């Protein structure tokens, strides 16, 4: 999603640039970070849209042909799906908290939307979605809420650092332009 | 973006703990509800089997009065919403409700359509498949069980009977039990789980918040006030009592203020 600041500085240090080029690069990077900060909200909106379909037991969509359902085989038991959901929620929360602790900007919220949709699908085929909908929904809101918060705080921290760099650049530019002979 | 240190520290912890506990409670409630429903179905199935076995001898003897009496007595029991025996054509032969007698059951009714949706009704069902859950005409939730009365050698060899050996099912016992006790138990269980969840959340989040406040936020606030005093030129302020890493920061600030004071006195 985003490069960290150290990589960015190394990248910049490797290539000599004019102050204008640097400013443009920092501004572009701020724009990318601002866009990335909203990824969590987009993922949350997508998940809520999928959950709305799941609330009606996917009745909007045509049911799968019997041959295809037979090919898929017997769905896993409720206990197995519920156990997997608990395991997934726990590991996802731990992963997000560890990334938050390490200040890492890695990871995207969209794979979580895919995993949660898969849980809706499993419960749907096991004919238990009406009983377990709220559990998947609560897991989704928790995981995506935490992931969105992590991405948002990380991007805002990075934007603040970039803005400080931009201010520093402007200050140096003003200093050198004052020294130029008139 | 939350600027305060306390908000940044507590929000993710509170969200993670609340979410995970809620997910676990919802899944636990769902599992317990399924287990309790399965037990209720098992109980109703056993009851239906008992009725079929109790009426077997009277049916073999074609003693309609005794069968009707048994069915009426069972129907008078508290929690029994309906009990009836109908023949293969769906004609109610015995029922606790006298107005149902000699009437055909509605195969398209909510409790019957499950087996009668196709051109041929399903004749062999597992224990859980025999159970239907629906609301009856009185608006009560009912768990109904159908137990087929299968044709046995004793039935088609009896001199008084007309069944032939090829007939698989002679009739069906249909008993409906009120789900009110089960629903009440589930509601009570849900409420207790909600209270338990809230207590866990209050204890966990409150505990984390209290510990963070005591160990981090209050010493930080004292340190911030101390730094503000120094910035305002009040170099005689005594440093706050801090422990650990914050004590090192306090020491550094104190050292800087001491050097500043000495430097000022030298200049004067």
Automatic annotation (TrEMBL), chain A:
Keywords: Membrane, Transmembrane, Transmembrane helix. The chain crosses the membrane at residues 41-60, 80-97, 109-126, 132-152. This is Menaquinol oxidoreductase. It comes from Geomobilimonas luticola.
Automatic annotation (TrEMBL), chain B:
Residues 233-268 are annotated as: Disordered. The keyword Oxidoreductase does not apply. This is HAMP domain-containing protein. The chain crosses the membrane at residues 6-29, 193-212. It comes from Geomobilimonas luticola. Residues 258-268 have a biased composition (Basic and acidic residues). Gene3D superfamilies: 3.30.450.290, 6.10.340.10. InterPro entries: HAMP_dom. Residues 214-265 form the HAMP domain. Keywords: Membrane, Transmembrane, Transmembrane helix.
């Amino acid at each position: 999603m985003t490069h960290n600041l150290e990589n960015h500085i190394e990248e910049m240090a490797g290539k000599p640039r004019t102050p204008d080029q640097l400013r443009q690069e920092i501004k572009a990077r701020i724009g990318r970070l601002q866009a990335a900060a909203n990824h969590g909200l987009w993922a949350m909106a997508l998940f809520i849209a999928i959950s709305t379909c799941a609330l009606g037991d996917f009745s909007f969509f045509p049911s799968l042909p019997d041959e295809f359902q037979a090919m898929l085989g017997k769905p896993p038991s409720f206990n197995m799906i519920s156990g997997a959901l608990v395991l997934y929620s726990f590991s996802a929360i731990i992963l997000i908290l560890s990334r938050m602790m390490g200040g890492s900007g890695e990871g995207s919220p969209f794979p979580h939307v895919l995993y949660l949709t898969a849980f809706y699908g499993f419960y749907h085929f096991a004919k238990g979605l009406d009983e377990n909908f709220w559990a998947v929904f609560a897991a989704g809101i928790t995981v995506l809420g935490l992931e969105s918060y992590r991405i948002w705080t990380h991007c805002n921290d990075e934007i603040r650092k970039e803005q400080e760099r931009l201010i520093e650049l402007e200050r140096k530019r003003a200093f050198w332009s004052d020294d130029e002979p008139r | 973006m939350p600027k305060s240190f306390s908000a940044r520290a507590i929000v993710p912890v509170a969200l993670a703990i609340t979410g995970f506990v809620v997910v676990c409670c919802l899944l636990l409630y769902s599992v317990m509800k399924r287990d309790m429903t399965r037990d209720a179905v098992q109980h109703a199935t056993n009851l239906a089997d008992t009725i079929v076995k109790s009426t077997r001898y009277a049916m073999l003897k074609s003693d309609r009065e005794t069968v009707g009496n048994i069915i009426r007595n069972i129907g008078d029991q508290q929690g029994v919403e309906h009990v009836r025996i109908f023949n293969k054509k769906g004609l109610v032969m015995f029922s606790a409700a006298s107005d149902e007698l000699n009437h055909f059951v509605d195969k398209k009714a909510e409790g019957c359509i499950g087996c009668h949706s196709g051109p041929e009704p399903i004749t062999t069902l597992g224990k859980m498949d025999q159970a239907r859950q629906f609301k009856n005409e009185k608006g009560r939730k009912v768990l109904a069980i159908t137990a087929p009365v299968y044709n046995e050698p004793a039935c088609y060899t009896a001199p008084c009977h007309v069944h032939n050996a090829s007939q698989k099912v002679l009739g069906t016992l249909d008993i409906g039990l009120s789900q009110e006790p089960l629903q009440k138990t589930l509601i009570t269980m849900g409420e207790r789980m909600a209270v338990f969840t809230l207590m866990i959340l209050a204890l966990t989040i409150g505990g984390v918040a209290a510990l963070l406040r005591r160990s981090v936020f209050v010493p930080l606030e004292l340190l911030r006030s101390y730094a503000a005093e120094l910035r305002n030129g009040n170099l005689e302020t005594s440093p706050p009592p801090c422990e650990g890493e914050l004590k090192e920061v306090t020491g550094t600030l104190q050292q800087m203020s001491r050097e500043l004071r000495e430097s000022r006195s030298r200049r004067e």
